[in-house]
Amino acid sequence: MTQIVTLKGVSKSFGALTVTDAVDLAVESGEALGIIGPNGAGKSTLFNLIGGALQPSEGRIYWQDHDITDLPAAQRCRLGIGRSFQIPHPFVGMTVYENLLTAAIFGGDAQSAPQTCRRVLELTGLRPKANLQAGSLGLLERKRLEMARALATSPKVLLLDEIAGGLTEAECHALVATIRDIHASGMAVIWIEHVVHALLAVVERLVVIDRGALVAQGDPKAVMADPMVQQLYLGIDADDAA
Amino acid sequence: MTTAPLTRRKAPVSLIAIFVTIVFLAAAPFWASRGTLNMLMEALAFLALAQMWNLLAGYTGLISVGQQAWVGLGGYLFFALAMFSGLPLLIALPVAALLSGLIAFPIGWIAFRLQGAYFAIGTWVIAEVFRLIAAQFSALGGGSGISLPIDVVKSLATSRGARDMVMYYIAFGLGIGSVVIVWLMLRSKWGLAFTAIRDSEPASESIGIRIRRVKFMVYVATAASTALTGGFIFLQKLRITPDAAFSVNEWSAFIIFIVVIGGIGSIEGPILGVILFFTLRSFAADWGSWYLITLGALAIGVMLVDRQGMWSILKSRGVPVLFKTTRWFEP
Ligand SMILES: Nc1ncnc2c1ncn2[C@@H]1O[C@H](COP(=O)(O)OP(=O)(O)O)[C@@H](O)[C@H]1O
Ligand SMILES: [Mg+2]
Q: Distance from the CA of A128 to the center of ligand 2, in angstroms?
């Protein structure tokens, strides 16, 4: 297996606040990686660094063998990094279909954009909503749209940031099945999720972030059994119930 | 924001409305008085300016209060070409616009160093610098300005009636052309990019839109077409001065009022705004500064009801969209 995204000694500070603390992380192509950690641990910031929305204060980020630390977000998307935002950013003045079309044209292959969108609409269950204004969607549908829009750019690695919260049991099952399908198609998935049972149903490796640092990683079951993680996990559980 | 599914294809009504309006305007020289014709010319020129400012501010979020830089530059370059280059007037006009577009590259490069409110102020400062430079050219009348020589004016057409006719159709082309071009652009893939940038910049970048490039491209294109309109405006006035050419009131404040009242971020908004602006002006011509105060109050009032302006208020009352851009998913 080859590494698709690699972080070497990546740190990010906002003034005196260190939000990402010397993170080393390598993601294999086609891997399903889970990320957990308490609120404010710096998980979303990690996605902003990988996606190029933020520049690291220190360290380098690689796409395969290429240093992409200085590459703007738009070009990282074209390389194959597709991301969702934890707080959805739909293009509210367009329909759901147009949201995907825009992503497919600018971030993927413009020629096959309509077919790509059709496939993504099917896959994510958004087809019945295709012609609705994105601004009229509720929060759960907006989260779904976040995932769909990232998928429409035909990424090689998909970054999902807390998309399972608030779903019913059945919806959560359907989401897990969808992400498994995506992963089975050969796409690498990095998934930040508080709904741990959903996460564990998909990922092959789990990473724990606390106060910006990578504090544990490995086989999901082993990581979850780690007493230190259990300690943090109690915190996560409390968040989850909130 | 509509919550109901978008109603599909009631195109005929809106197409008929657009067609009737175009025919009505195209025939204006045959039904309108000279005064009305002049007013229509001015309104069509303002429509072109408003469409360009709306594209810039309403879609790509570049709030410029310095569009007078391009109106004035277009006017001055046009006068210079008309008087000294020997080019026919109808050629000098687009050449002045193209030259302004070229100048917009380095000027844009400077303005793009600045963000948000600083960009807005920066564009204004740039326009002021243009005004000061224009006043330095004694061949163009320096600070007191210059009139287009009568023989140059006559080269457009010998009779006044024929000149009015030619000028009217230039204005018609600018006004209608600006709407058509913006509409075609919004229907192309660039329309998706503009709307995406309008709605969320971080999301736009995350899906591969190079927003700085798109914005720069829009800045240069709107500078050139604003200069084209500027050239026409001073051809119609037959006289140019630095203060008139680079007036922040006339070419930025009024345009911003028009777009904000009518509805920013839509094609219909600037059209509605221009109609409102000129209707109000015909009633309030001699109110002096009360006219401006009314205008400002109206803009604020509309904003309080709906930040997307009159057009959004009408749309939420069921008025059908005139310029359709939606790409429907066909199951
Ligand atoms: N742009 C920013 N400026 C300042 N602080 C920020 C910024 N973005 C995130 N932070 C801070 O960084 C910390 C980590 O945030 P985040 O990555 O969103 O955490 P998580 O996703 O793990 O909940 C938080 O304390 C947050 O307030
Ligand atoms: Mg987060």
A: 29
- The pair of three-digit structure tokens given for residue B229, joined into one six-digit string: 């309109």
DSSP A51-64: HTSS--SEEEEEET
Distance (Å, whole) CA B277 – CA B300: 14
> Total structural domains in chain B?
1
d(CA A156, CA B313): 43
Q: Which residue has the tokens 């075609």?
A: B184
**Hey, are the CB atoms on A153 and B193 less than 8 Å from each other?**
no
Residue in B closest to A86 by C-alpha:
B203
Distances (CA, A) of A231 to A37, A40, A216, A226: 11, 16, 12, 9
Spacing, Cα B264 to ligand 1 middle (Å): 33
Residues of B within an 8 Å Cβ radius of A: 1-6, 8, 189, 192-193, 195-196, 198-200, 202-211, 265, 326-329, 331
Q: Which residue of A53, A94, A107 is in closest CB contact with B208?
A: A107
Q: How far apart are CA B320 and CA B10, in angstroms?
A: 8
Q: Is the pTM of this model over 0.90?
A: no
Establish if B5 belongs to a structural domain. Answer: no
Name every chain B residue with its beta carbon within 8 A of the beta carbon of A110: 189
Contact predicate B219/B108, CB 8 Å: yes
Going along chain A from its start, the domains and CATH numbers come out as 1-80+156-237 (3.40.50.300), 85-154 (no CATH)
In a domain, B67, yes or no: yes
Q: Report yes or no for ipTM above 0.90.
A: yes
Q: Which of A19, A54, A211 to mutate to test the pocket of ligand 1 (most atoms within 8 A of CB)?
A: A19
Report whether residue A239 contacts ligand 1, using a CB cutoff of 6 Å.
Answer: no
Residue B33 lies in a domain: yes
Centre of ligand 1 to C-alpha A131, Å, is: 34
Indicate whether B314 belongs to any domain: no
> Crossing angle for the helix pair A113-124 and A96-107, nearest 10 degrees?
130
CA–CA dist A81, A108 (Å, integer): 11
CA B45 and chain centroid, separation: 7
Residue A216: beta bridge partners?
Answer: A208
Backbone φ, ψ for residue A191 (5° rounding) = -125, 115
Contact A133/B1, CB-based, under 8 Å?
yes
Please list the pLDDT of chain B residue by residue as tens digits (331 residues): 444 444 455 557 778 888 999 999 999 999 999 999 999 999 999 999 999 999 999 999 899 999 999 999 999 999 999 999 989 999 999 999 999 999 999 999 999 999 888 999 999 999 999 999 999 999 999 999 999 999 999 998 889 899 999 999 999 999 999 999 999 999 999 999 999 999 999 999 999 999 999 999 999 999 999 999 999 999 999 999 999 999 999 999 999 999 999 999 999 999 999 999 999 888 877 787 788 788 888 888 888 888 889 998 998 898 888 888 899 998 8
Q: Which residues of A touch B308 (CB under 8 A)?
A: none
Taking CA–CA distances from A92, the nearest residue in chain B reads: B199
Do B209 and A74 make contact, defined as CB atoms within 8 angstroms? yes
Gap from CA of A22 to ligand 1 centroid (Å): 16
